[in-house]
Design brief:
Blueprint (H helix, E strand, L loop, with lengths): L1 H12 L1 E5 L4 E7 L6 H11 L13 E7 L5 E10 L2 E6 L4 H12 L3 E6 L2 E8 L2 H8 L12 E5 L4 H10 L26 H15 L18 E6 L13 E6 L3 H10 L3 E2 L2 H10 L13 H19 L13
Parallel strand pairs: 1-11
Antiparallel strand pairs: 1-7, 2-5, 2-6, 3-4, 4-5, 7-10, 8-9, 9-10
Length: 325
Amino acid sequence: GRGYRSTTKWTRDACAVHDGSYNACLRLEAALGPDETASLEAVLARCVEGGVRGVKVDDGAFDAVIVGSAGEPIAPAQVISIERGMLVWVHPDAVDAVSDVLGGTCGGAVRVTRVHSLCRLEITGETALASLSAVADTLGLSESKSRVHRCGTRGDPREAAWFAKKRGVFTSTPPTDGSGQTPMEYAVRPATAQELGARRRAARRISGDFYKEGAPDADSVLPGCPLIVVRRPRGPLATSHDHGFTIIAPRGWAQPLLLALVHLGARAAGRLEWAWLATAAGSARFPEDFPDTDAGRRWQGGIEDENRTRASVVPRGKLATRPGV
């Protein structure tokens, strides 16, 4: 329909952004210490489709299908390597089953914990990289062999987007820990809309234009947040536009990032529109395209119940005995 055509056209001419924070995140850590990464790879090799060949740790991130002890599919997952373990993102309908499989396979060598402190966005389209670069420091992302890039936003992403449309870009580096990496536990909350509005009104009263003379001083930039940017693989039927990206940020920063990207021209896509884009790219959708999984059977059962309910509704004019007659 028109919604599908409009959404696919938008990704060809601009980009679309989707808030995927409803997906569940599991963290895998070696129980014997952070250096025991071999145990993590061994656990994943027993839990993903394809075994050792399906575990591509050298890429920094990879997509896989989690399988049970008998080889039955459980759910697709995105696995991302981090400093002291791995993050496994799965659909919320399958998070319990995936957690049970990973915990049962590791035999106590790996700790599996649910992570609630992260949010996740997806962006794809012709201008995805340009829009992302306006609000985050993506230098080296395209040239790197690794699909994972750790960086930070250029101050508050909403201000960075507003400035990018007027003058250009400015830089602001979030704090780092002793290893030189930006900690994802960085707990600074984003500025509220009221704080942003008051800040702009005060600056206009002083100078008449917030960014009239160029980029603001580093001391006047609102704090930003650290990011993990993952370059997504192309779908089998994907068009010639750039790879899509997964953006992982601390909890509470999904809305500022989404608003910033929309301000730069991205279209906000809900779950229906994102499913259309996945189908257009030839990528599998969960649970619709996984009928052999428990979640897929529940989804199919819900569709059948809905169809039966719709078919059982008889118009009032076709009732055998009309009320009041």
